[in-house]
Amino acid sequence: MLQSKLFPKTRKEAPKEAESVNHKLLVRAGFMDQLMAGSWTLLPLGWRVVTKINNIIREEINAIGGQEMLMPLLHPKDIWNETGRWDKAQDIMYKIKDQHDREYALSFTHEEIVMDLLRKNISSYKDLPLSLYHFSTKFRNELRAKNGILRGREFMMKDLYSAHVSEEDLMDYYERVKLAYSKIFSRLAFNFKITKASGGVFTDKHTHEFQVLCEAGEDTIYWKEGDEEAINEEILEGNKDEYKSAKSIEVGNIFPLGTWYAEKMGMMFTDQDGSKKPVWFGSYGIGVSRIVGTLVEVSHDDKGIIWYPQVAPFDVHLISLKQDNKANEIYDKLQEAGIDVLFDDREVSAGEKFGDSDLIGIPVRLVVSEKTGDKIEWKNRTSEKVELLTLEEAISKCLKK
Fold first, then answer.
1. What is the pLDDT of residues 158-187, one digit of tens each?
2. C-alpha–C-alpha distance, residues 358 and 302, integer Å
């Protein structure tokens, strides 16, 4: 990608209303744009990061049998009335009417929609278990849409839903999802804790959240030394002095929903003995756009963003300070080797190029200049150390990362 063609350009100043680090840096570096409080455009750089995140999630969910699909965002009132959540969840739902005065909701979750799919297509125990997921936009009427992309009214999520013949099978899969989520957040290099929490408007059972330790977080979690799981402040019982605590950002959650949805919506299957039984149901979410903001909050410095290689928008940032074709040739060779390159071909000062490179935060910076001669200057975003390498050495090093 030629940086001269990249949309939009970087900004010298953060928006006046920006308070959080992710808001300031993601807008300045050209990853996101705020349409209004809680509503964001994922710009080309931002979409590249989201695509990398989604691919990591997709690999781990496919590995536990998830089948990807895509469900509607506009839902009729009738389907939400079947569970009573049209009224129960009204504080966070966006409701609209059409020209015929029919009422709809914009999706804040998809349990009812999945249950409707199940009752149309599942009749026997032989059809179960089943797990379905999608990446989709969610709408929630947040009273305090703030902290940049961390708390939005419109945001991207990965939803996984599973259906089972028994509670035992549901909880077995629940543990498999818990492990898959742990793999996902480990691959994203997060320092996270699995945390017991309440079920909110989803279930009256305790659930689990995946909380990334971060001072910018709105949640507070507690744990004792040696505990495998932490506890969310909202359900903590006992003396807080007995626990360690930390601020954290919730990036995922899992819910064992039981048979409540099936019973409300008439999702019955025929079991081995011929009897009719309600399906056991689970719901599992990951906040994809929230992950983008969380990555910035936990990995930045005073110069800009520091992307981890596995989610960076490009593998390397190539900067040309020469007036000949050498950088163009290097750009072509890097691409031929399968390396994803952002090439700063702009006619601006070296200082502006280096400043933008630090702000955008691609893991490796390669510089071609009169000073480097027939070699290339290699610098990691996380280090001040500079190496002079041949093109072949630079390509080999890129491919090993």
1. 999 999 999 999 999 999 999 999 999 999
2. 9
Pairing of strands 219-223, 244-258: antiparallel
pTM of the entire structure?
A: 0.96
- Claim to verify: residue 94 and residue 143 sit in the same structural domain: yes
Q: Dump strand ranges (E) for 107-223.
A: 130-139, 154-164, 192-197, 207-213, 219-223
Three-state SS at 270: strand
Q: CA-to-CA distance for 145 and 138, rounded, in angstroms? A: 14
For residues 108 and 159, the answer to whether their CB atoms sit within 8 Å is no
Residue with tokens 């320092």: 191
Classify residue 220: in a domain, yes or no: yes
Inter-CA distances, 72 with 117, 136, 139, 368, Å: 12, 9, 12, 49
pLDDT digits (tens, 9 = 90+) for 91-124: 999 999 999 999 999 999 999 999 999 999 999 9
328, 384: one domain = yes
Chain center to CA of 294: 9
Model confidence at 393, pLDDT cuts 50, 70, 90, reads very high
In this structure, are 225 and 296 located in the same domain? Answer: yes
Q: Does 146 map to a domain?
A: yes
Examine the pLDDT at 201 and tell me if it is beyond 60.
no
**66 is in which domain, residue-wise?**
12-301
**Cis peptide leading into residue 363 (ω within 30°):** no
Contact in structure between 129 and 97 (CB atoms under 8 Å):
no
Edge-first strand listing for the sheet containing 103-106: 74-76, 103-106, 94-97
pLDDT of 365 strictly over 70: yes
The number of beta carbons lying within 10 Å of the beta carbon of residue 123 is 12
Residue 48 lies in a domain: yes
Q: Please give the Cα distance from 22 to 28 (Å, whole number).
A: 10
Average the pLDDT over 237-258 and give the result.
94
Are the C-beta atoms of 147 and 293 separated by less than 8 Å?
A: yes
Q: How far is CA 322 from CA 327, 374, 385, in A?
A: 8, 12, 22
Query: Total structural domains in the chain?
Result: 2
Give CA angle at 105 (87, 209), nearest 5°: 75
Burial class (CB in 10 A: 0-12, 13-18, 19+), 31: buried
Same domain? 42 vs 111:
yes
